[in-house]
Amino acid sequence: MDFSLSDKEQKMWERSKAFTYEHITPRAHELEKRDEFPKEVVQKAYEAGLMNLHIPTEAGGPGLSLVTETLVSEATGYGCAGIATSVMCNNLAFAPLVISATTEQLKEYVEPLITGKEAKFGAFCLTERTAGSDAAAVATKAERDGDEYLINGVKCFITNAPQASLFTVFASTQPELKHKGLSVFMVPKSRAVKIGLIEKKVGQLNSVQSEVIFEDVRVPRNCLVGKEGEGFKIAMMTLDKTRAGIAAIATGVAQRAVDEAGKFASVRHQFGQPIGRFQGISFKLAEMGARTFAARWMTRYSAWLADNDLPNSKDSSMAKFFAADAAMQNAIEAVQIMGGYGYIKEYPAEKLMRDAKLLQIYEGTNEVQRVVAGNAVIKESVNLDTGFHVKYDGRDAPLM
Prior knowledge:
By secondary structure, the chain is α+β, with helices and mostly antiparallel strands. Helices cover 50% and strands 15% of the residues. It is built from eleven helices and ten strands.
């Protein structure tokens, strides 16, 4: 076993942390007051080579590993989960295309967006008002009309949508087949795509989510990714890969909570000594550190599995819900350790708490991740020989 990073990965890790310390951490609070897309910081991240890492070299990208992506996400998430989401969201938007589009499609639709001087963005359009965790309930339709598709529907909570030049759209080409009738399309913004309501959120104010409206939007046939009816499979393959990125952002938040709480506990004196010397506080810090440690390695392992073309659905689901929960728990504990200061906006703890909550919700709620992981555990256990051969028949459980 080798837990060390490669030289290339280590350099990216150091570069990402240096970028965060210089451009994100000092400005996150200030930028959050604007409640808008942090264009200047994201442009700097693009120029620093921190975006579009998964695009293959034949389409103009660096073709880096998912492990490398998680390093960047953890580092930027440490500074601000909202900015990290804005920086890394192209990973989600373009992942279905990397998985199933042809090289020719990538060169035509994606390469122009990742090789210019200015950062450009994609948007992953799956969620609808009545289709959140239930992808089979997608109501957006794509109908064949000669050599074109006609798309109609409304998506919601779409990250980076107002900035996007290309939308990866999941739409039903055969509604009667439910999830088996779902297909994926690349839709340029120039095809009369409209932006609807921009959401006002509690946290992650340095990222932007909005509605995306498709009213008789026409796209040529070559905008179909893969084949008709493959959309659900592509979506699941996408999320298996990209969940590690969310887990990595969550790990960054969890680590920031540890560091801020630990720093405060070392300088805040009560009863004649730093509060960190009291067992009640030191135990909290130990548990916060352990949660972060576990989240980091679960995340990197799930990414490593994907990089080696090994099944990672269960592992990425576990990493996502564990890391997101760790971020939320650590943020709450940081607020508690800092007391009244933790609840004041001038200090970072309250922002960590607001930002962490969304990590438990977006890109598959933690409840859904537990369903995915739980089903996988049951499937793995069915034919497992545990050495205990009394049959469970639903009547009398054996005494253990």
